[in-house]
Amino acid sequence: MADTPPNQNVVDADRKSRFTRLRSTLRILYHGQSPKALRFQAVVLIVDLAIIAFFVASPLLRDTESFLWIDYSIAALLAADLTARGLASSHPERWIRQLPVVVDVFILITLLAPTWFFNLGFLRILRLWTLSHSSTVWRPLEKRGLGGYRDKIQAVINLLVFIFVVTGFVYTAFAQRDAGIAGYVDALYFTVTTMTTTGFGDITLPGTFGKLVSIVIMIIGISLFVRLAQLIFRPNKVTFPCPQCGLTRHEPDAVHCKACGHLLNIPDEGHH
């Protein structure tokens, strides 16, 4: 068996070194706290929000000439972002199995084949849900003392995602049928009136399947509303790891850990 030429070994080592430096640079940009990293994370966040705005407006833009151009451009951006995040991860195999990443991969597939996945295009709004679980969003907010609002913001996002997913499903499955749904706004109107149990009755889904869909919307929708109301009116919890069991979320005036009973000494933010 012939030995590998010395020059080839040098080339391979140089490629490996450059790849390692690339991963290190991406890790710093995505997870670092330097001004450069924070600016990069802010740009990524703005791009993510622009993508979500396109997903919300896509039912209205689908028939325009520029739709496919925008669709494929966003697919390229999302593919580049997913690749970069994977390279920045310390354990790519574990990273790719995370639910938000799986959702993003599915969204990328629908972007690459918009005509094949037309009926599932409404699921792209799940990108908003994956964004709400991103450390890129919460790290700067926590540095500014806004981490206590995380549960409330995520509850609002969960509700919005549910509304838009259900609206997309209703529009796709029942538009132009005997349901009174002539457009996307009608589907949104039906979703909100159903999940709030207002039920004006001017738009109804036909058949047994339509009734089952309405029941599911009401049950899940009212549950999300109750969850949001609880988080808004319930006192904020503080982050303080229990020395005994490690529970991190406690009531601001807690004296003992509710999980193990260990005596706590939570600092009072009002005193310095």
UniProtKB/TrEMBL annotation:
<keyword id="KW-0813">Transport</keyword>
<keyword id="KW-0812">Transmembrane</keyword>
<keyword id="KW-0407">Ion channel</keyword>
<dbReference type="Pfam" id="PF07885">
    <property type="entry name" value="Ion_trans_2"/>
</dbReference>
<keyword id="KW-0406">Ion transport</keyword>
<keyword id="KW-1133">Transmembrane helix</keyword>
<protein>
    <submittedName>
        <fullName>Ion transporter</fullName>
    </submittedName>
</protein>
<feature type="transmembrane region" description="Helical">
    <location>
        <begin position="67"/>
        <end position="87"/>
    </location>
</feature>
<feature type="transmembrane region" description="Helical">
    <location>
        <begin position="37"/>
        <end position="61"/>
    </location>
</feature>
<feature type="transmembrane region" description="Helical">
    <location>
        <begin position="212"/>
        <end position="233"/>
    </location>
</feature>
<dbReference type="GO" id="GO:0008076">
    <property type="term" value="C:voltage-gated potassium channel complex"/>
</dbReference>
<keyword id="KW-0472">Membrane</keyword>
<feature type="transmembrane region" description="Helical">
    <location>
        <begin position="99"/>
        <end position="118"/>
    </location>
</feature>
<feature type="transmembrane region" description="Helical">
    <location>
        <begin position="153"/>
        <end position="174"/>
    </location>
</feature>
<dbReference type="InterPro" id="IPR013099">
    <property type="entry name" value="K_chnl_dom"/>
</dbReference>
<dbReference type="GO" id="GO:0005249">
    <property type="term" value="F:voltage-gated potassium channel activity"/>
</dbReference>
<feature type="domain" description="Potassium channel">
    <location>
        <begin position="161"/>
        <end position="232"/>
    </location>
</feature>
<dbReference type="GO" id="GO:0001508">
    <property type="term" value="P:action potential"/>
</dbReference>
<dbReference type="InterPro" id="IPR028325">
    <property type="entry name" value="VG_K_chnl"/>
</dbReference>
<dbReference type="InterPro" id="IPR003938">
    <property type="entry name" value="K_chnl_volt-dep_EAG/ELK/ERG"/>
</dbReference>
